[in-house]
Amino acid sequence: MHVQGLHREALSQLVHARRDLPAARGYCRTYAQSPRQWQHHLLTLLDVLWAPDSREAGHPTGAGTAGEGPWRAACDDFALRLLQQHAARLDATEVMGVLPGHLSLASLQPVWAAMLPHHTHRMHEAQMRQGLARGDLTQAQQELLRMRGRRVVITQGRTCAASGQPVADRVFVVHPSNSVVLFGARREGELEHRCPLTGRDYHKLPLHPSEPIPSD
Question: Which of 99, 110, 175, 194 is deepest in the core (most CB within 10 A)?
Fold first, then answer.
């Protein structure tokens, strides 16, 4: 059986066999290794609370044993209180997936009143992050176009800024300062991202988009 199925079976035993609702809630907390896993366990518990007991479902009349009505009401009340208590940490869309059809709108009103502000806030926050990410991408694309628009003229007399050797037709790297360094010309221990002319470390002090780039 899948791990989530084992958790569901354990919660079903606590709810329908032992009828120990606080223990079922404690189980969700004890066996959650992350906030997201805790949410999954809590949603499973809500689904179990609203699912019919297998003994009740197997009864020939469907009426179940005596006292099932009050117990179902107790499960409903416990589930609604769980929703209100943890409204800030649950996703409203996922909760909609486990809500039963027999609950009245009046009973759900306090739940939605507690849950929707947090859901709306998370949506706005996600939209803001998406907008910032789009802005960063646009800025990076513009910077890439700017860097690609650079030109470097390699004349016969052009030498490597690190080794002093002629560049000629050898592979080279151009720094933002317009200094040319032959590939592999760095001495051992020298930083590839440090300009040999200015000493600027471009990892610690990256080039700003508004900073002019010299060109030949």
Answer: 175
Is the Cβ–Cβ distance between 29 and 38 less than 8 Å? yes
Q: What is the mean pLDDT of residues 24-40?
A: 88
Kindly tell me the burial class for residue 175, based on how many C-beta atoms sit within 10 Å of its own C-beta (0-12, 13-18, 19 or more). buried
- The model's pLDDT over 92-148, given as tens digits with 9 standing for 90+, comes to 778 888 888 888 878 878 777 777 776 676 676 767 778 778 877 887 788 778 777
Structure tokens at 107: 């009973």
Report the Cα 188 to chain-centroid distance in Å: 41
Cβ–Cβ < 8 Å for 175, 207: no
pTM of the model: 0.49
Cα distance between residue 83 and residue 67, in whole Å:
25
The C-alpha atoms of residue 38 and residue 193 are separated, in whole angstroms, by 45
Sign, CA dihedral 155-161-162-165, equals positive
Q: Nearest 5°: phi and psi at 164?
A: 80, 0
- DSSP E strands: which ranges in 121-215? 172-174, 180-182
Q: Note whether 159 and 166 are within 8 A (CB).
A: yes
Residue 203: pLDDT above 80? no
CA distance 167 to 204: 28
Residue with more model confidence, 101 or 48: 48
Give the span between the Cα atoms of 200 and 193, in whole angstroms. Answer: 8
